[in-house]
Amino acid sequence: MMKPGRAVILLTLGFSACARSMFAAVDTPNDSTVFVMSNNSDHNEVVAYTHELDGRFLETGRYETGGRGSGGTNDPLQSQGSLTLSSDHQLLFAVNAGSGTLSSFWVGRQGRLLLADKVETGGSEPLAVTSFQNRVYVLDGAGAGTVVGFMVSGPGQLRRIPNALAFLSATSAGGSSISITPNGRFVVVTERLTNKLDVFPIQQDGTLRIE
């Protein structure tokens, strides 16, 4: 039985846990679009590609996030999930690791994006984001590493959830991915450098229960 509060689980990390993941995809009967994040240190962008019938992917648009990426070319974020879609594929969320912000986009027809909001995450290096219903949680890799929660309202408006803040198990733990369990009850964070998982129970108001 899981003990209330943060649970730390040991695991062995394979190379796939450190693989670069700066993409998300929309796939409907009439539309198939892949979104890729540039992580540019001057102005971060989301680039849209449409999957053609002949198998090719054609660039169809570039959309500025309003923030800055961290730059670099060799897996600079060392994370998975720097871009993620809401479950209904109507919203796209992107972290801006160079400016400490989170951007939300409204996803329109044919994968067109409209910047809806941009907020400070409270950390200097947001690396990954996860979404469940009207909540998103952001993993920040700077310092001790943190998880912070936001409510999503209207067409992608973000509002910080009071007290929805949790720390990873150790300083410089190397947080690399974040996800919410399918039932929406737990936030799970992979720690790349400690070979651990942090598990934070989500309370009804969106706050994270910690010991």
Can you describe what's shown?
This protein has 211 residues and is mostly beta strands. It has a single domain (7-201), classed as Methylamine Dehydrogenase, Chain H (7 Propeller), CATH 2.130.10. 0% of the residues lie in helices and 50% in strands. It contains no helices and 16 strands. Strands 1-16-15-14 form a four-stranded antiparallel sheet, with no helix packed on it. The chain has a four-stranded antiparallel sheet with strand order 2-3-4-5, with no helix packed on it.
CATH topology-level name: Methylamine Dehydrogenase, Chain H
Structural class: mainly beta
**Strand line-up in the sheet with most strands:** 1-16-15-14
Strand content: over 45%
CATH architecture label name: 7 Propeller
Shape designation: globular
Ends: how far apart? 16 Å
CATH superfamily: YVTN repeat-like/Quinoprotein amine dehydrogenase
- Report on the biggest sheet: 4 strands, antiparallel
Total discrete domains = 1
Total DSSP helices: 0
Secondary-structure element series: EEEEEEEEEEEEEEEE
Number of strands: 16
Summarize the amount of helix as a percent range: under 10%
Mean pLDDT: 83
Rg, rounded, reads 17 Å
The CATH class is identified as Mainly Beta
Residue windows where pLDDT falls under 50 for at least 5 positions: 1-21
Throw out a few tags for this protein.
50% strand; Methylamine Dehydrogenase, Chain H; disordered N terminus; 16 strands; four-stranded antiparallel beta sheet; mainly beta; globular; 211 residues
